Amino acid sequence: MITKPNFLNLIGLVFLILLFFISSGRMILLKRQAERPGHTIIRLAHIRLQAPFKAAIDRLAADYMKLHPNVTVKQIPIPLRIWRMWVRTQLAGGTAPELIFDSVATNDELLVRHFVPLTPWVDLPNTYNKGTALEGVPWRETFLNGLNNPPTYKPDLMEVYSVPTSMSTLRLLYNVDLLETVTNSREPPTTWEAFLALCSKVEAFAQRENRVLFPMAGSDRSIPLFTRMFSRQTQRLTLAIDRDRTLERTRWKEAYLLGEWNLRSDGIKGGLKVLRRLGLHTNPGFINYRIEDQSFYFLQQRALAVPVFAQMESKDLRDLAGFAVDVMNLPDPAPDNAEFAPNTLGPNSEAGMGMGQGFNVLRGPHVDVAVDFLHYMTSRRAYQTFVEISHSIPVVIGVEPPEGLRKFMPKEKGFPPGFLIGGSGNSGTEAERLFRVNFHLLADPTGSVDSFIEALERDYGKMLLADQRNQIRSWTRNIQRNDTVLAARASLLNPGDQKKAFLLLEMQNSQELALYKSRNVRRKTGHLP
Questions:
Q1: Are 51 and 317 within 8 A, CB to CB?
Q2: What are the distances in angstroms from CA 226 to CA 101, 222, 289, 358, 498?
Q3: CA count, 13 A, side-chain hemisphere, 368
Q4: Distance between CA atoms of 171 and 314, rounded to whole angstroms?
Q5: What is the DSSP letter of 422?
Q6: Residue 224 reports pLDDT greater than 50
Q7: Tens-place pLDDT, residues 334-370
Q8: Which of 383, 390, 456, 471 has the fewest CB atoms below 10 angstroms from its CB?
Q9: What is the mean pLDDT of residues 47-55?
């Protein structure tokens, strides 16, 4: 039986045809633009979907294109959910953008194969700083950390692969109006005990009013905020296992394998108790949620507070919220707290916060133009504009933060944080997966600290050994590759290259020492490489 076409189907068909022609037209336009003699297109791919960040990139791109009419700069925002797959697909297909956000999607092997080290450029002045206090200063020295720390500097590769655009601190954004409704006060708690009391009040209020309301809205991005509280509980334990007195937090894996501490040590149990109490006051199953989910909870006023890992997220939420919001710190247990004080030295310092959110430069015909845009982006004048629009913590010397950013500025006073056993990505791929898979035992009301520890104890050592084995392989490949480079430098050394050659040799020695220590631990524990 023949039926008449549905009117809505016809509309849909017309819309698809129209969309096809629009897309084809854009592709033809971009192709012609790219084929113009002397014209270059630079694309930036990133995961910062917040409006302030995208607006800042658009502004700097427009200003740069005015200075360079033969260059077009385009940004490509990609959702975090598909970022890793998208990056690797683009790299494999040869269609990757010229600038790609520095992230976990690119490991050392991919960096070496597809991206250009920026080390040759960072020791030269940024020409866009002409007429400022940074004129003539080497590019690396225009940044607060001198580009000497990850993730911009890759220790295993001994190269700088990106330059930072921001620094991230962890804070809580809270609903001021809702706080007043629950407590008759607009002032947030300033102590650990008062914070836990507030969480109980919020839950009692929600039950009394028969509404969905949690003290905190969480996601997988909330874990770093919680683990900062954990790291304060391992401060004394970190010092106890620091045999070389280097104040580094890297020996904890080796010390675990050698039996110098275990998952039932006081500092570990104290940290897990803190994590459990925070988890119980967060929406159930939050570790499986994404950042957009926790933002939705907060904007729907189904949560009093929400962790914000980057200040630009705070700006975005402030603009979207239809209620008064403010920023608070997650309070630490006080020094006189009998349960938690014995494990700590004092509040964590944020002086060593990492700088990141930079871009890697793809190997290809447009390397010089891509690096030139990074020069412009991080120059003092342009970067001041970027900071004001994106609401970012500045990482360039002499650039002032916006007034609304003061509460996000790093707190320099305090003590070095202790080590983490998971939740931040620093414990290794396998150990991290084990931690997250079992985290529900810690944050669920039916779970407990002991049940979480029991679940980890079964396989934690095996996971650390697996991660150590992978690290040994990586170090071995890097050492072999760098031996060739060092040998070539020794035979072709110019007087001006002596300092760099010396630094490369020192880093090579450092990696070889780390490799020796790791292999020695495996021999002592009966796990030969």
A1: no
A2: 26, 7, 15, 25, 45
A3: 2
A4: 9
A5: S
A6: yes
A7: 777 888 888 988 888 877 666 778 899 999 999 999 9
A8: 471
A9: 88
pLDDT bracket for residue 14 (50, 70, 90): confident
State how far the Cα of 497 lies from the Cα of 161, in Å rounded to an integer. Answer: 20
The two tokens of residue 365 are 């015909």
Angle between helices 266-280 and 223-233 (to 10 degrees): 150
Residue in 81, 132, 171, 103 with CA at minimum distance from that of residue 391: 171
- Backbone φ and ψ for 164, nearest 5 degrees, come out as -75, 155
Name the strand (E) or helix (H) holding 360. strand 359-361
Strands 71-77 and 40-46: parallel
**Contact yes or no for 214/304 (Cβ under 8 A):** yes
Query: CA-CA distance, 334 to 237, in Å (whole number)?
Result: 18
Sign for the CA dihedral angle at 299, 305, 307, 311 comes to positive
pLDDT at 1: 47
Angular region, 364: left φ>0, alpha ψ -120 to 50, beta rest: left
Largest CA distance in the chain: 88
Cβ atoms of residues 49 and 79 within 8 Å: yes
What's the token pair of residue 173? 């954004």
DSSP string covering 129-174:
GTTSTTTT-BGGGGBTTTT-STTTEETTTTEE-----EE---EEEE
Spatial CB neighbours of 440, under 8 Å, sequence gap ≥ 6? 285, 287, 447
pTM comes to: 0.79
Mean pLDDT, the chain, rounded, equals: 85
DSSP 251-295: THHHHHHTTS--TTSHHHHHHHHHHHHHHHTB-TTGGGS-HHHHH
CA 352 to chain centre: 14
Find where tokens 């962790």 sit: 307
